[in-house]
Design the sequence.
């Protein structure tokens, strides 16, 4: 028995032709954005992801690491070897490579990057099946033996693209946040290093001054034995020695704290030993407020992030306006017709047809409220940008004033106060030996010399820490003088990336303004 042909004539009227054209337009405009992402942005995300260990494509390894961490079995950092010559530059390089906060920021960029193909792709198609159950409908062509159909929602042209741009802006915001985390980490390393340096040099100065005080105690003992001085001179010297021992205990704790902070920033064991900090010569930091403000506006990653946020908010407004237009749902249905029809003219031919449907965006109040919400968010982001810019300007001014203050204090202590305080110690020591001065005055002069010597190095360390603050506010590596912008080979600094190391202070010496350590 030959089978009957399964074909149905499909009338080519104007309505059907229009529906086909409309369906094709929606399909092309929707599919054109599916999974799309800006290629340059995609490359940037891939480059960042390549700098951190772990492969997101290795499902088993990711699950194992997550379960291990959740079970509190993640190995603690180890004491990676450091060269005995390691200094600030090396610490910065290690921190930029291994710091967990930077790794987390990179992963956050990845997370948002994977959202782009999700929001720019079509919804899952729907498949419907009508099995031959219940009362079967009889038609002139025969009994309907079942049917199946499929449908796909096609958003209005431009909606998928707008959704993708919104998430892409979020990716750019995450990249700016990553830049901020990097420059913040560099600043933390720099400030912790100078805390470490200050504690170390303070310990050396205190130990040297203790040796001097022991000599003064011996002078007092000799004079006491000869009946030329009171016992209280010896006792006062011994009390001062005990006080210095207490100071050394405090300084050792400060050094250990700074060392632990440096190790933590480098993701090393917090009790790992560090090489002794390098000495450096102080040099002037010459920046004017207007130049620093210009660099901050152009380079500060927090301001850049808010600019990308405003662009994202504008894209959200565009998407809200596209909701004024309907989405299209296209469907296909195939109906099975049985050969056992009761009509004498039945053909038994199966039937198929296309269906089109649209939603009706008629609730104007809701749709308009979404646009107004977006407008309000744009204005809020603009105000947030203005507020942050004002805060950064204030912090720049504050940092520059502190830089100038600490530099002048360091110069004052180094060139005037400390040398004269030491002359006073030498003079009072000679006077005490000859019996022309009380031991109390000698100890007072010695205490002043020690305090001023420590204050000199505190000002030096604080100067470098305030310079670290300045670079963090600007968002790029800076030369020590804005006059050196052209000689650095960079336009006022370079962004902090994994292979970029900030200015090492010890490499910018001023031969006319060296320290007297």
Sequence:
């Amino acid at each position: 028995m030959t089978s009957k042909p399964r074909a149905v004539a499909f009338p080519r009227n104007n309505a059907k032709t229009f529906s086909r054209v409309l369906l094709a337009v929606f399909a092309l405009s929707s599919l054109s954005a599916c999974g799309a992402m800006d290629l340059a942005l995609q490359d940037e995300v891939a480059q960042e992801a390549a700098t951190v260990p772990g492969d997101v494509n290795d499902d088993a390894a990711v699950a194992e690491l997550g379960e291990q961490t959740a079970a509190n079995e993640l190995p603690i950092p180890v004491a990676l070897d450091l060269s005995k010559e390691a200094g600030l530059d090396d610490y910065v390089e290690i921190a930029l490579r291994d710091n967990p906060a930077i790794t987390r920021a990179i992963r956050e960029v990845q997370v948002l990057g994977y959202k782009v193909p999700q929001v720019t792709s079509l919804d899952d198609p729907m498949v419907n099946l009508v099995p031959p159950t219940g009362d079967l409908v009889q038609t002139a062509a025969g009994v309907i033996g079942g049917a199946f159909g499929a449908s796909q929602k096609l958003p209005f042209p431009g909606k998928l693209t707008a959704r993708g741009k919104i998430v892409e802006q979020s990716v750019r915001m995450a990249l700016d946040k990553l830049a901020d985390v990097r420059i913040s980490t560099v600043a933390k390393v720099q400030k912790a290093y100078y805390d470490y340096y200050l504690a170390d040099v303070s310990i050396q100065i205190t130990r040297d001054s203790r040796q001097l005080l022991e000599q003064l105690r011996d002078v007092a003992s000799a004079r006491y034995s000869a009946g030329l001085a009171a016992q209280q001179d010896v006792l006062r010297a011994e009390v001062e020695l005990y006080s210095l021992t207490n100071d050394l205990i405090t300084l050792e704790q400060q050094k250990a704290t700074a060392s632990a902070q440096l190790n933590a920033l480098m993701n090393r064991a917090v009790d790992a030993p560090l090489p002794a900090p390098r000495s450096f010569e102080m040099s002037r930091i010459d920046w004017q407020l207007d130049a620093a403000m210009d660099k901050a506006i152009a380079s500060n990653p927090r301001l850049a992030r808010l600019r990308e946020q405003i662009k994202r908010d504008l894209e959200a407004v565009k998407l809200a306006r596209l909701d004024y237009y309907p989405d299209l749902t296209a469907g296909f249905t195939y109906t099975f017709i049985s050969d056992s029809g009761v009509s004498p003219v039945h053909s038994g031919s199966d039937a198929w047809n296309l269906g089109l449907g649209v939603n009706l965006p008629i609730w104007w109040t809701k749709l308009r409220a979404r646009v107004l919400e977006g407008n309000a968010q744009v204005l809020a982001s603009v105000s947030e940008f203005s507020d942050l810019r004002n805060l950064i300007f204030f912090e720049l001014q504050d940092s520059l004033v502190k830089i100038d203050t600490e530099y002048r204090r360091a110069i004052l202590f180094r060139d005037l106060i400390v040398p004269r305080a030491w002359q006073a110690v030498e003079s009072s020591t000679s006077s005490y030996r000859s019996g022309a001065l009380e031991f109390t005055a000698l100890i007072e002069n010695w205490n002043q010399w020690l305090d001023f010597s420590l204050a000199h190095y505190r000002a030096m360390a604080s100067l470098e820490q305030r310079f670290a603050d300045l670079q963090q506010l600007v968002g790029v590596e800076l030369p020590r003088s804005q006059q050196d912008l052209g000689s650095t080979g960079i336009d006022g600094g370079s962004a902090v990336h994994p292979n970029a190391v900030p200015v090492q202070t010890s490499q910018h010496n001023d031969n006319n303004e060296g320290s007297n350590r």
Q: What stands out?
A: The CA atoms of residues 66 and 422 lie 61 Å apart. The two ends are 110 Å apart (CA to CA). The longest helix spans residues 364-433.
